Amino acid sequence: MSATFDSMWSDLEPVGRTSNGGYRRFAWTAQDHALREWFSAESARRGLDQSTDRAGNQWSWWWDGPGTVDEAAAGRRGAVMGSHLDSVPDGGAFDGPLGVVSAFAAIDALREAGFVPSVPVAVVNFVDEEGARFGIACAGSRLLTGQLAPERALALTDADGTTYAEALRAADRDPSTLGRDQEALDRVGAFVELHVEQGRALIDLGVPVAVSSDIWPHGRWRFDFPGEANHAGTTRLVDRHDAMIGYADLVLGARTVATQRGCVATVGKVQVTPGGVNAIPSHVTGWLDARGADEAAVVAMVEELTARSVGIGASVERESWTPTTHFDAHLASRLRGVLGTEDEVSVPILGTGAGHDAGILATAGYSTAMIFVRNPTGVSHSPAEFAEPDDCHAGVAALAASIADLAGSAAATSTTTSAATTTPTDGGDR
Ligand code: GLV
Ligand code: MN
Ligand code: MN
User: Fold this and answer.
1) pTM of structure
2) Which residues sit with their C-beta closer than 6 Å to ligand 1?
């Protein structure tokens, strides 16, 4: 089992790697194509049944029972595991791929142990989880579940002005098929996403894996600041309309207001027009990422920052919003029982400030859980993101045990809607 994990991991390592040791694996690019080919090859190597849904997510189904996987899935909803293969700009190797590689390795481990599932088991690769290219995080799972309208997705543009529709065509996909896919959804009974931990809780607790309880509310907003281009040397300070000043106010305001309201706020992406050292900026666009444990506080923070920027002439648009998401508490406690004991120390239960496809599925009403694998650096969305090989193997074992439990009984045969205690996410469709 650890051998198959290790060899898959080495195969993926060079794909999309940059000179700083990080990764640029953006949706519907050549790097993404190579990752999708890798997924297909791993699926074929295991004799699994492959399909791609209307959102472009890849599925790979394991069913050794009587009849085809389609027939089996029609009566028995499956136990699904997986994550995503794309990355943020200069992201780490683990955020996403760890969940997909571990899922294939878990199938190998279960087969090696002679396990025969009583419901179909799948590995999924969700497309464009990070939203690094087109701006909307979890685009694949939002499209799949109808939480992002295809018309809106198709019109999104990347930094070069390429639309999502054009990117799909360039990747040999027909944009007119994009959208919610009920047939694919009808096969899902329960979903378990294994993910590298994106903080330091497991290091401090001294244990390799945890189960997740919930995801903080979070969203992205686009702020556009107008200005007037002019000469950097000859324009008097009093005569300037410098778009950068409003943007600077947003950046500093975000830190101040987040501190006051107990939230976090980040302005991690900016576009300056015309972008010349010796030209006063005529336009600046900045993207705010806002999150926090308390939904009302996050909303109030963004309202305050919006009012402040609008007051100096900016326009503000919400691009996406995901309210507090609770995973299925019954499933989490069941997995904690399978993975250890109901003891806080052996298998901790952690909340997270990071968004995940699992959260989108939970909001859509699917019984969903996450398993976190210890990250000794506590760093994520950076080349410093890491997990020790032994902990990765412990993660595979935990995932295999979880799927053995779900696919060894009738529990994965129906969706559990206890997770759907949240209002729908918003991919920006208003
Ligand atoms: C995804 O990793 C996010 O939380 O932005
Ligand atoms: Mn991420
Ligand atoms: Mn991720």
Assistant:
1) 0.94
2) 130, 137, 354-355
